């Protein structure tokens, strides 16, 4: 059974991130999502995806993709993050003394929005797969190497092929930066950008649920910055993963 890939962030003498043994991702894995980003489908997402968005009342998410909150536990618990140092780039400010015990959302990435950009939550998040396939990339900030200052990078595929090691459920602890991107469901004969076709492959979207404990608040959320990425990863790793940053942070990587 395939195991998740983990990279310690040790600098490599090979500067190529596309085909060398130091690459974080197999060279063919991001091709589908990268093609969708560089050549966005000219038509709306497929009828099946549009039906999913409509029936689940999904809205565009600031991380990329679509979401809908389906549960917010009315039970209030003490806010365990209230007295922690401020996040690097907080999405909102809220030092309330309580948090909801948990929250749950649907989250969907599609051919027209195939990436969930690097971000982190202070709270623990349980992910459950409903449909589709994708890749998750985790930056383990809590395991920074004392000698190099770099952090381990973990990657894994989520999907229904358990024999190949794909995951149906995964947990991301608080403080870990994560990004995700879409993989094709399977080879298909249908033509047309409305199906997310790239190189003979299609996806009807990656649909999951996320349960956050304690409950999600944007004050407990931030996006990975260009500065933090440079600090946490080697130059080769930055070049390989930069496309998973928000676009404004990608531009900052080019600034001297």
Automatic annotation (TrEMBL):
It comes from the Eukaryota. Residues 51-223 form the DUF985 domain. Residues 12-22 have a biased composition (Low complexity). CDD domains: cupin_YML079wp. Residues 1-22 are annotated as: Disordered. Residues 1-11 have a biased composition (Polar residues). Pfam families: Cupin_5 (PF06172). PANTHER family: DUF985 DOMAIN-CONTAINING PROTEIN, RMLC-LIKE JELLY ROLL FOLD PROTEIN. This is DUF985 domain-containing protein. It comes from Capronia coronata CBS 617.96. The lineage of its organism: Eukaryota, Fungi, Dikarya, Ascomycota, Pezizomycotina.
């Amino acid at each position: 059974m395939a195991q998740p890939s983990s990279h310690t962030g040790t600098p490599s003498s090979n500067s190529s991130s596309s085909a060398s043994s130091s690459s974080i991702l197999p060279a063919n894995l991001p091709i589908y999502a990268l093609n969708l980003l560089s050549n966005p489908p000219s038509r709306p997402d497929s009828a099946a995806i549009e039906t999913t968005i409509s029936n689940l009342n999904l809205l565009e998410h600031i991380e990329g993709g679509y979401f809908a909150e389906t549960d917010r536990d009315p039970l209030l618990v003490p806010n365990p993050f209230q007295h922690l140092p401020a996040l690097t780039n907080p999405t909102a400010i809220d030092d309330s003394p309580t948090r909801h015990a948990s929250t749950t959302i649907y989250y969907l990435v599609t051919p027209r929005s195939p990436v969930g950009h690097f971000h982190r939550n202070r709270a623990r998040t349980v992910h459950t797969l409903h449909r589709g396939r994708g890749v998750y990339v985790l930056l383990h900030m809590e395991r920074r190497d004392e000698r190099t200052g770099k952090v381990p990078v973990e990657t894994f595929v989520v999907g229904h092929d358990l024999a190949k090691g794909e995951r149906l459920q995964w947990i991301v602890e608080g403080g870990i930066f994560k990004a995700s991107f879409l993989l094709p469901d399977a080879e298909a004969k249908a033509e047309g950008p409305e199906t997310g076709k790239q190189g003979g492959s299609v996806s009807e979207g990656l649909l999951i649920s996320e349960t956050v404990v304690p409950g999600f608040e944007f004050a407990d959320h931030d996006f990975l910055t260009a500065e933090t990425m440079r600090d946490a990863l080697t130059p080769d790793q930055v070049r390989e993963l930069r496309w998973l940053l928000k676009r404004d942070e990608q531009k900052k990587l080019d600034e001297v």
